[in-house]
Amino acid sequence: MPLIQKSLECGVPKLQLLALTLIPGLFKKLEYAVFKQNILPRLMLALEKSEDNTVKIRVLGTIQELQEAIDQQTLSSLVLKSLEKVRQKETDP
User: Fold this and answer.
1) What is the DSSP letter of 15?
2) Rg, Å, the chain Cα set
3) Nearest residue to 8 via CA among 64, 52, 68, 65
4) Mean pLDDT score of the chain, rounded to an integer?
5) pTM reported for the whole predicted model
6) pLDDT tens, 45-60?
7) Is residue 56 within 8 Å of residue 86, measured between CB atoms?
8) CB under 8 Å, gap of 24 or more: what pairs does 56-63 form?
9) What pLDDT, on the 0 to 100 scale, is given for residue 67?
10) Could you say which DSSP state residue 70 is in?
11) Looking at the chain, which runs of residues are DSSP E strands?
12) What is the signed CA dihedral for 75, 26, 45, 57, rounded to 10 degrees?
């Protein structure tokens, strides 16, 4: 898990994409609280900070895969706020 966390934070698109492919399998093995505190914030940070559109699309795909398992409060407080930040950043004149 620490390697996946560092890969999401590093800013190297190739490492981020590799970590993103491993997250759904890791999600099944971890307790939800651990995922929510350690992986999900880094996932949202990768979405907000990445300049690579492939990484952004893959993060959104990962969130979509896991959306049924993520509680409603986390979706509204963390995920939607990150999506709003990305929308504001992308539509900046």
Assistant:
1) H
2) 13
3) 52
4) 90
5) 0.85
6) 999 999 899 999 999 9
7) yes
8) 56/86, 58/16, 58/17, 58/20, 58/21, 59/20, 61/20, 62/20, 62/23, 62/24
9) 87
10) S
11) none
12) -80
